[in-house]
Amino acid sequence: MADEPSLGELGRLIQALRGDVRDDLAQVNARLDRLVSADVYAVERSAMEKQISDLGKAVEAIQQQRQQDADRVTQTRRYLLASVVMPLLGLVLPVVLFLAGSK
Questions:
Q1: For 2, which DSSP code?
Q2: DSSP conformation letters of 38-64
Q3: C-beta atoms surrounding 25 within 10 Å
């Protein structure tokens, strides 16, 4: 009977076991507090996907605007060439040819 623990020892072992279980549960709760529920995760993911989609649309709109601006610059250059430079050359070139021919 000397090998069996006394009631006091059993009580202390049970108390130690309870303390260990309590500590383990506290650690589990602490880890669970850091986790996000599936519902919250789904909502956050949906919001993030919407933001990414919105950013993609904004980038596409900016690219279209840049293309329109580039087209506008090209059209302006063509207009200047056709309506200003060419007529000016049409006026100056005969005068230069006339002066060069008269020498």
A1: T
A2: HHHHHHHHHHHHHHHHHHHHHHHHHHH
A3: 10
| Rounded CA separation 82/88 (Å) | 10
Query: DSSP label at 82?
Result: I
Task: Assess contact for 44 and 36: CB atoms under 8 A.
Answer: yes
What is residue 5's DSSP assignment? P
What are the pLDDT digits (tens) for 62-99? Answer: 999 999 999 999 999 999 888 888 888 888 888 888 88
Reported pTM: 0.50
Calpha distance 77→71 (Å, rounded) = 10
